[in-house]
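Below is how a single chain appears once it has passed through the pipeline. First comes the sequence as given, then the structure the pipeline wrote out for it. We keep one example in the README because the format questions we get most often are answered faster by looking than by reading.
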Amino acid sequence: MTISNFKLMIPNGKRLVYALVVAFAFVLLTFNLSWAATAAKHYTELQFAPLPEVKLPKYERYQLNNGIVVYLMQDRELPLVKGGAMIRTGDRWEPADKVGLAELTGKVMRTGGTVSHTPDEINQMLEQRAASVEISVNESSGTASFEALSEDTETVLGLFAEILREPMFAQDKLELAKTQARGQIARRNDTPDQIAQREFTKLIYGKESPYARTTEYATINNISRQDLVKFYQQYFYPNNMILGIVGDFDPKKMKSLIQAKFGDWKANPNLPKPQLPEVSQANQGGVFFVNQPQLTQSNILIGHLGGQFNSPDYPALDVLSGVLNGFGGRLFNEVRSRQGLAYSVYGYWSPRHDYPGMFIAGGQTRSDATVQFVKALQAEIKRLQTQQVTPRELAFAKESTLNSFVFNFEDPAQVLSRLMRYEYYGYPSDFLFRYQKAVAATTAADVQRVAQQYLKPDALITLVVGNQTAIKPPLTQLATQVTPIDVTIPGLPQPQARN
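Resulting structure:
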C-alpha cells in the first residue's frame, strides 16, 4: 500500500489531529535537543552527590580455649558459607637450601589426603557438593579456605578441619607437586615482565634475601616428605591460627560446629616465634640490564626500598602515588601523552604490612626510546620534590583514592578477610578508616614533604630488560657502568639432539 492510498483511508478530521501531533512532537524534539546542547558539560564540571558513609557489617570475635581466634559474620543473601584461616608461617622462614618447601607444604596438605580420607575420596566428596577447600603458604602467611552450600556446611567444614589437623602428605602427590614446580622453573624466563619483576626484587633486597630468593631445581630436589611434615609441625597449631566464617548460618549452631571440629585440637604451649628477616637495600643505585635479543621493546623498572602500611606517612605517600598514576596523573600526561614514550607507565609507593616494601616506577617503551623513557621517569620523580602539586592534581589524587574506598567493602567476605589480616599483622581493626581520614586531610605540602623525605631520585636502581643492539642511544648514557644480569636457569635440562 502506498502512502497516498493510506492517506485516503484517514478521515479529514483525523488528518488534522495527526498533523498537529506530528508538529508538536517536532517542536518538542527540537526543544529537547537544544536544551541538551546548552546543558552539556565537560566531565570536569560534573558534580556528584557524596558517597555514603561506609560501615562495617556486624561481626563477632571470640577465642576457643585452645587459642584459635574466631570471626563470625552473617550474610543471608545467598545460601552459601565461606571460611578462611590464616596461619602464622611463611616461606620467609624456610631453609635457604630448600626454597619452595613452604609452597609445597601447602599444596600437598590439600592434595595429599588425610588420616581418614584418601586424596580421591576428598576430591569426590567436595565435587559431589560443588564445594571447595584450598590451602597455600605464601611469603608471610599460610592461608586455607573453603566454600560450600549452607546445607553442606557441616560436612565441608569437617573436611576443612581434617585437612588442617591431619594431613598425610602422600609421597606420590609430593612427587607430582615437585614435577609441577620444576615446570614453573623452566618457564620463568618466558616473559620479560616475569624476568623484570623477579630480578628487580633481587636488586632491591639481595638475591639471598627471603623476600627475593627463587626456587631452583637444586632446592626442589633437596625437599623430602619428612621436610614437609617438619615444616607443618612447626607452625600448624590452633594457638597459631585465625579462623573466619561468613555466610548463611545460625551463629549459635556455627559456634557449636566450630567447637566440635576444632575444640579438641591441642595447642602448642612452646610455639616458636621466629624473628622477621632483616631488610636492607642490597644495591645503592646503579643501572642493570638483562639482554633479550628477541624483544622489540624494553621493560623498565626503577626504584628503591620503601616502607610499611603502618607508617604515619603512608596516606600522604598513597596520595603521591595518585598524583603520578591514572589517566590524569603526571606520568600518563607527560611521559605517555605529551612525549609519546610509553605503551604503559606507572609509579607508586608499594608498602608491606610488616617489612619494607618498595617504591617502584616503570613501564614499557620501544627500544630506541629506552634512555629517554628512563630520564623522563627520573625527571617526574624529582619534580615531585621540587614542584608542589597543584590544587587540581591534589583533588584528583585524593578523590580517586577516596572514591575507590568503597570497593574495600564490596562483600562481607572481603571485609572479614581484611579484619583477619589486620589482627594477623597487629594492626587496629579500624586501620582502614584511620587511613581514609588521613587521606582526606592530606595537603599539597604533605605530598611534597613525603616526596622529599622518602623518594631517593639520586639513588634509584634501574633495570632494563630488552634488546641490547636495538637500544640506541645506549644505556651508558644513564651510567658509565651498566651491569649485565645473567638469567640462565641453573640445572635446566637441555633438549636432546636428534640423530
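The first strand starts at residue 60 and ends at 63.

See the next section for the split statistics.
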